[in-house]
Design goal:
By secondary structure, the chain is mainly α. Helix content is 74%, strand content 5%. It contains 3 helices and 2 strands. The protein has a two-stranded antiparallel sheet with strand order 1-2. A hairpin with a 2-residue loop joins β1 and β2. The chain is rod-shaped.
Length: 74
């Protein structure tokens, strides 16, 4: 049960971090070919490694939560 809670919190933290990062970059007025591009804006600020870390935390969190659900009780 502890792994499920830990994994859920990690997943939520990673997901919220990615959402804040994506919405924060869209607050700028930068466009690519007339279209707004969050990923281009993040790459200009050097935030792509941070984005990948947050996505990794979310993926790791969901994996820990699923592992906790299917783990047998002792």
């Amino acid at each position: 049960m502890k792994k499920v809670i830990l994994g859920s919190i990690m997943f939520l933290a990673g997901l919220l971090s990615v959402a804040v990062l994506l919405t924060g970059t869209m607050a700028n007025d930068w466009t690519v070919n007339g279209q707004l591009s969050s990923f281009w804006c993040m790459s200009q600020y050097g935030l792509m490694p941070t984005f990948y870390i947050f996505v990794g935390i979310a993926i790791l969190g969901i994996c820990v939560a699923i592992w906790g659900v299917f783990e047998k009780e002792k």
